[in-house]
Specification:
Blueprint lengths: L2 H11 L5 E3 L5 H9 L5 E2 L2 H7 L10 H14 L4 E4 L8 H14 L3 E5 L5 H17 L5 E5 L10 H18 L3 E3 L6 H11 L3 E4 L7 H7 L3 E3 L3 H20 L12 H9 L2
Parallel strand pairs: 1-8, 2-3, 3-4, 4-5, 5-6, 6-7, 7-8
Helix pairs in contact: 2-4, 5-6, 6-7
């Protein structure tokens, strides 16, 4: 799919019901997620970093992330959004340059977070990334993540008010959706849908209502984040430990897909 068409499709997915994203970490996981019926692929920064032996938090080199996106783009036929953390950049100009590279790699969306930085930093990066992508011919979808709840930057009403303030600043700067991880409960999520005034993205989290309830509340995007990768890594550890202990083969017969089916799915890339 042409990047311009993929970008238009990805934008549309946020305005027609709720987009559910089981986040990928490499080309193989992206193919499985596409086969499962996903309408788009989003990477998880933590999952991609772990899969390459790095901790989360921009410890992984830029080139590794770009190579991962290129491999996913080779393997799937649906729009791709890359989690770029804080833009892999210390300043707005560098963030804009990185946006050009991530678009060239095949992404039509990014997840961009404020973390512990002041909102001014994300605003400047967001504006530069949007403008750089336009110059590259793509209407880049920016999912602006605010970490007020995730990092405990405020509590109670103060956390809510700060989240809404940041969301408005990011929306005004060009954000296409607002991601508020670590919120839970129908009442709080419903209030955010009303006050954020942009498509709201929530993270799969203890206490988050099921998909049907989120749709009713007006949530537009639900992300697995690092959840699938974390479960997968735990399964690798547990199966490896069991195999080292007793050499048993039976666990390797589990799962619906066998080698021929997996090979067939990968050969469609």
């Amino acid at each position: 799919m042409d990047n311009r068409d993929a970008a238009r499709e990805f934008h549309a997915l946020h305005h027609d019901g709720m987009l559910i994203l089981p986040n990928a970490w490499d080309a193989g996981s992206a193919r499985m997620i596409e086969h499962a019926g996903a309408k788009a692929i989003a990477t998880s920064s933590a999952a991609v970093a772990w899969s390459h032996g790095y901790p989360d938090g921009e410890a992984m080199p830029q080139e590794v992330l770009l190579a991962t996106v290129r491999e996913i783009a080779r393997s799937v036929r649906i729009p791709i959004s890359a989690d770029v953390e804080a833009g892999y950049a210390a300043d707005a100009e560098s963030a804009g340059a990185f946006a050009t590279r991530i678009v060239d790699a095949g992404a039509v969306g990014v997840n961009l977070e404020d973390g512990l930085d002041a909102p001014d930093s994300l605003v400047a990066k967001l504006e530069n990334m949007k403008n750089a992508a336009v110059r590259a011919g793509v209407d880049l979808f920016v999912n602006a993540r605010t970490d007020v709840y995730l990092r405990g930057l405020a509590e109670g009403d103060a956390a809510y008010e700060e989240t809404v303030r940041r969301a408005e600043r990011y929306r005004t700067a060009g954000a296409d959706s607002i991601f508020v991880p670590a919120v839970a409960g129908a009442d709080l999520i419903g209030r955010l849908v009303r006050d954020v005034v942009a498509p709201l993205n929530v993270l799969a989290w203890p206490g988050v209502p099921p998909a049907d309830e989120l749709r009713r509340l007006g949530v537009r995007r639900l992300s697995a984040g690092s959840g699938i990768a974390k479960v997968t890594i735990n399964a690798v550890y547990e199966m490896a430990a069991a195999f080292l202990a007793d050499g048993g083969s039976d666990p390797f017969l589990e799962g619906a897909l066998r080698n021929p089916q997996i090979n067939a799915l990968m050969s469609r890339a």
